[in-house]
Write a structure and sequence with these properties.
Largest sheet: 2 strands, antiparallel
Number of strands: 2
Structural class: mainly alpha
Strand content: under 5%
Helix content: 55-70%
Number of domains: 2
Number of helices: 11
C-alpha cells in the first residue's frame, strides 16, 4: 500500500451511499463531490483530502481552485450560485451550472465514473423539476440537499421529506415578507407585487374598466415626445445648413480652401471653390437624369 493512502473501513452507511451514487470507491465519490461543487471534471490527484461526510473544501482541487479564482469573480461554485439564487429568487444560473457540468463530465476521460455521475446529476435535477414547481422552493431544496448530503453525493432516490420542508420554508418566507423580491410595487389598494414579471404584466395590460384608455394615453405621450425630438433635430439641421451654405461665417469659421475669414468654402470665389460647386451640382443632376 502507498504511504499516502489511508486504510478506511467501509461502513454500512458508506456502502449505501456508494451504491446509490453508483460509485465503486470513496475516491470516485470524492471526485463526484468535488466535480459537483466546482462545476467541472477533476483529476484523481485533486481528490486528495476527501473525507466521507465532510465538506469538499478540504480537498486539494478545491483549495487550488479557490486560490486561482480569488478576487476574480470567475469560477463560481455551486454553493455560491445557490446563495445568490436564494437572494434573487432566480434559479436559472444554478440550472445552467448543472447543465454545463453534465456536458463536461460526459466529455471527460479523467475518471471513468464521470459518465455515471452525469446521469446521476441529470436524474437528480429532473426529479427536482418535476416535484418542485416553485422556484424559491426549488432553490431552498437544493440548499438543504447540500447541507444534508455534502460529502455523500446527492439524494438518490428523490428526498420527498426535504422537498416538503423546502416548500413549507418558501411559503413561510413569503408570508413573513422575507423571501426574495424583484421589483416591489404597491398599487392603490396597497397590494404588493413582488416579481418583475408581475409588474411588467400589469403595466402592459390595460385595466378592464379603462377600455384601453391607459395604453392609448401612454402611446399618445410617446408620440408627442417623438414629435418634439423630431422638431429639435429639424432645427439643428436648419442651423447646420445655414452655417455651411449661407456664406455667413461663424465667429471662428473660415474657408478651408483659401483660409479666408470672410467667407465659407461654399461661397469661395477661387477656381477651386467654383470647381467644387460645379462637381456638387453635376452629382445632383446626374441621378435625376438617370431616373428620367
Amino acid at each position: 500500500m502507498d504511504a499516502s493512502q489511508k486504510l478506511v473501513v467501509i461502513t454500512k452507511e458508506m456502502a449505501a451511499d456508494l451504491s446509490a451514487q453508483q460509485m465503486t470507491t470513496l475516491g470516485e465519490l470524492g471526485a463526484f463531490e468535488l466535480a459537483l461543487a466546482l462545476g467541472r471534471a477533476v483529476g484523481p490527484e485533486e481528490v486528495d483530502g476527501f473525507n466521507y461526510g465532510s465538506p469538499y473544501m478540504h480537498m486539494v482541487g478545491a483549495i487550488r481552485s479557490a486560490k486561482a479564482n480569488k478576487g476574480s469573480g470567475r469560477g463560481k461554485n455551486l454553493d455560491t450560485l445557490l446563495g445568490e439564487a436564494l437572494i434573487s429568487g432566480d434559479k436559472s444560473d444554478v440550472k445552467r451550472f448543472f447543465t454545463d457540468l453534465c456536458h463536461r463530465l460526459t466529455n471527460s476521460n479523467l475518471m471513468p465514473c464521470f459518465a455515471r455521475a452525469a446521469i446521476q446529476i441529470l436524474t437528480f435535477v429532473n426529479k427536482a423539476d418535476q416535484n418542485i414547481r416553485d422556484d424559491l422552493a426549488w432553490i431552498i431544496y437544493m440548499v438543504e440537499v447540500r447541507m444534508k448530503y455534502m460529502g455523500r453525493g446527492i439524494p438518490i432516490p428523490f428526498d420527498v421529506e426535504l422537498s416538503i420542508s423546502a416548500k413549507e420554508t418558501a411559503e413561510d418566507k413569503r408570508r413573513k415578507g422575507t423571501g426574495p423580491r424583484g421589483i416591489i410595487v404597491l398599487d392603490g389598494a396597497g397590494v404588493s407585487r413582488s416579481t418583475t414579471r408581475e409588474c411588467l404584466a400589469e403595466m402592459l395590460t390595460p385595466a378592464p374598466s379603462s377600455g384601453g384608455a391607459g395604453l392609448v394615453a401612454a402611446l399618445s405621450d410617446l408620440q408627442v415626445g417623438l414629435v418634439d425630438i423630431g422638431a429639435r433635430l429639424d432645427g439643428f439641421g436648419a442651423r447646420l445648413e445655414k452655417l455651411e451654405g449661407s456664406g455667413t461665417p461663424g465667429p471662428k469659421s473660415k474657408c478651408w480652401i483659401c483660409q479666408s475669414d470672410g467667407h465659407l468654402a461654399a461661397t469661395c470665389s477661387t477656381a477651386k471653390g467654383k470647381e467644387l460647386r460645379e462637381k456638387k451640382l453635376a452629382s445632383a443632376i446626374k441621378p435625376a437624369a438617370e431616373a428620367k
